Amino acid sequence: MIPVTTLKDRNVALFGLGGSGLATAQALVAGGAKVFAWDDNPDSVAKAASAGIATGDLRKLDWSGVAAFVLSPGVPLTHPKPHWSVDLARAAGVEIIGDVELFVRERRAHAPDCPFIAITGTNGKSTTTALIAHILKASGRDTQLGGNIGTAVLTLDPPKAGRFYVVECSSYQIDLAPTIDPTAGILLNLTPDHLDRHGTMQHYADVKERLVAGSDTAIVAVDDSFTTLIADRVERAGTKVVRISRRQPVADGLYAEGTHIRLAHGGGTRELIDLSPIQTLRGGHNAQNAAAAIAACLAVGVSEEHIRAGLSSFPGLKHRMQPVGRKDHVVFVNDSKATNAEAAAPALSSYDRIYWIAGGLPKEGGIASLTGFFPKIAKAYLIGEAAAAFAATLGESVPYEISGTLERAVAHAAADAEKDGAGPLAVLLSPACASFDQYKNFEVRGDDFVGHVAALPGVTMLIETNG
Hints:
The chain is an alpha/beta fold.
């Protein structure tokens, strides 16, 4: 835990007592703050109270003596309308911040020189975050990984000299971190997302821009119009900018040329690494992720040799295009995190011949947007509530069966792929659906897939399993 000492002996109001909110309240108390917390969920309030956190309805609080209001990132700050607690804080003139802001203040107070890499973007954040942390750890550095990737940032070990932080930041977290100041800040891409919480695409982009604008080195992928303009603006403001691209050469930065990542500097270019042998970094989107990771690691002093070694040994992000097993010419890939068609597209684009397991609780639009990938699909194995609708979309374009369950789909896909002599093949779980019709969440679905793959005769597992 990182005790929040910067608010020691101050009155702090807090709203939102879910996982990260409760961790934040405990970190504030550990640092000596006087915390008064609340949540709209009575169970969360009871849990916090049992953990020793002072709780009470913030509508009954005297806000005149409150030094800061800490808001959970899941609670609306601006759109569709501010939460009632936000209105109270603003009326009292109290600053509104989140857990990432508390972290950056502790870092500045206790170890301002310890490297801090922050990652944001609409897509690819988690893979890039995990990849950077893996490279740093593999090079022998003391590495802390947290933020939006699933580990609350204030549960990490406290800042100290030589400790590296790799923090994934959502737009909600950045909106509550007005002084965020990474050593290296990464912006991967911007496409419409979370507009219910930001109102407009421009406001969403403005929030994301804050992360790189406050960085010592801003690493910006310039493959869309919003990020291109952001890179130019941040550079004009005096920040060092490293541009990266998966689609085109850049004059000074890193770019992908097929599977080759090239470094451009001083009018010349040279190759840093060829990603083609690295199964966990297949696809153009992963070329962008790798370029961003390389740029960040270079910015914090990692050698090219250590970077190449870390990239080559990257095990992949669990449930995201994760090779989990192999048998002869067939690789089994867990992409359970692909809970809609857009999220399934990268995996479908990364393999040439696919035995595709898809389905679950359908999202709006189904899989119609994936028709361009249908020629790659040798056969589809459909599960869950979406099976009939997906079958109708596949029609006569793709052979399919309605397998119903994941266990049956894995068994049938493996048998069919084994008989296929066409060369490298993938049995791919990329559902393009939520999991909730059959599973608690996508993680449980992915683990079930791994378990069924591990039970197949003759499969060499590429990851550790509990079985």
